[in-house]
């Protein structure tokens, strides 16, 4: 895996060593303070570009174009909120997606299935173990965004999200986020309304380079990606891990996200 990942800088394959312990401690601290951590250059830039290049033709010809209107919750309504509440402002999200079975022979699949990565993430997240998703379509997705696409404000459904940027666009495509906007005890609808109306001064941004691994608690951290500019597409992989084995999307979810059942 050393030809794919920078295991000297990020020794996730060496548990029990001082370097591994420092990395885990740093990641835990970042996660607690900001709701996320990033490992820049985790995948070698050449390996990341190779995956983007290898999937480009399939992305252009066989990807699923997922487009929808949605609010920040991806829910048609929220109990206790009027339909015209500003927190329910509608956005458009659009991307092109390749499923796990379409990228099975690439370095991103080797990375996703690499046991030391799972074990490292579990330790940082304070989980006994993390498992690969038992879903050929949803376990690993590669998503492409061009000027006509966009990933708008939303909360994730899962406790945490793992992404790996494969190709950076010429301009735009900046990751924006608002840490701790809500909690289980306080949904903070007024704060959400200010965010979607562009009135939240606590929004932060992060411009990532190709090969960056990003882990964030997206369930309470609102986030989006600004529009891509130029002809070079933003290509990113989403790696799905769960605390329990055997997790699969329902056929309805597969059809909604990927346009097919597998």
How is the biggest beta sheet arranged? Answer: 7 strands, antiparallel
Instruction: Give the helices and strands as they follow along the chain.
Output: HEHEEHHEEEEEEHEEEEEEH
Helix content: 25-40%
Q: What's the end-to-end separation, in Å?
A: 29 Å
Strand line-up across the major sheet: 1-11-7-14-5-3-2
Shape assignment = globular
Helix count equals 6
What is the alpha-carbon Rg in Å?
A: 18 Å
Q: Could you tell me the number of beta strands?
A: 15
**What structural category do the secondary elements indicate?**
alpha+beta
**Average predicted local confidence, pLDDT:** 94
- Low-pLDDT residue spans: none
Give a brief outline of the structure:
With 262 residues, the chain is α+β, with helices and mostly antiparallel strands. Helix content is 26%, strand content 25%. Helix 1 crosses helix 4.
């Amino acid at each position: 895996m050393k030809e794919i990942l920078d295991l000297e800088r990020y020794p996730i394959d060496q548990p029990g060593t001082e370097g591994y312990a420092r990395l885990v401690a740093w990641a835990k601290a970042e996660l607690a303070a900001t709701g996320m951590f990033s490992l820049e250059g985790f995948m070698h830039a050449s390996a990341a570009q190779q995956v983007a290049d290898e999937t480009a033709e399939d992305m252009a010809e066989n990807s699923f174009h997922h487009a929808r209107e949605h609010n920040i919750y991806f829910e048609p309504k929220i109990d206790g909120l009027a339909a015209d509440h500003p927190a329910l402002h509608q956005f458009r999200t659009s991307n092109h997606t390749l499923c796990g079975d379409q990228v099975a022979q690439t370095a991103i699949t080797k990375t996703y299935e690499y046991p030391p990565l799972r074990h490292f993430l579990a330790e940082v997240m304070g989980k006994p173990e993390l498992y690969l998703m038992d879903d050929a379509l949803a376990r690993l997705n590669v998503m492409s965004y061009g000027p006509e696409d966009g990933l708008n404000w939303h909360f994730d459904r899962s406790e945490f999200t793992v992404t790996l940027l494969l190709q950076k666009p010429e301009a735009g495509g900046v990751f924006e986020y608002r840490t701790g906007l809500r909690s289980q005890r306080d949904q903070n609808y007024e704060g959400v309304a200010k965010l979607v109306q562009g009135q939240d001064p606590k929004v932060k941004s992060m411009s990532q380079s190709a090969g960056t691994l990003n882990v964030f608690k997206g369930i309470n951290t609102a986030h989006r990606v600004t529009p891509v500019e130029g002809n070079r597409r933003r290509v990113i992989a989403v790696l799905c891990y769960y605390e329990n084995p055997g997790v699969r999307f329902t056929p309805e979810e597969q059809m909604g996200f990927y346009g097919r059942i597998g």
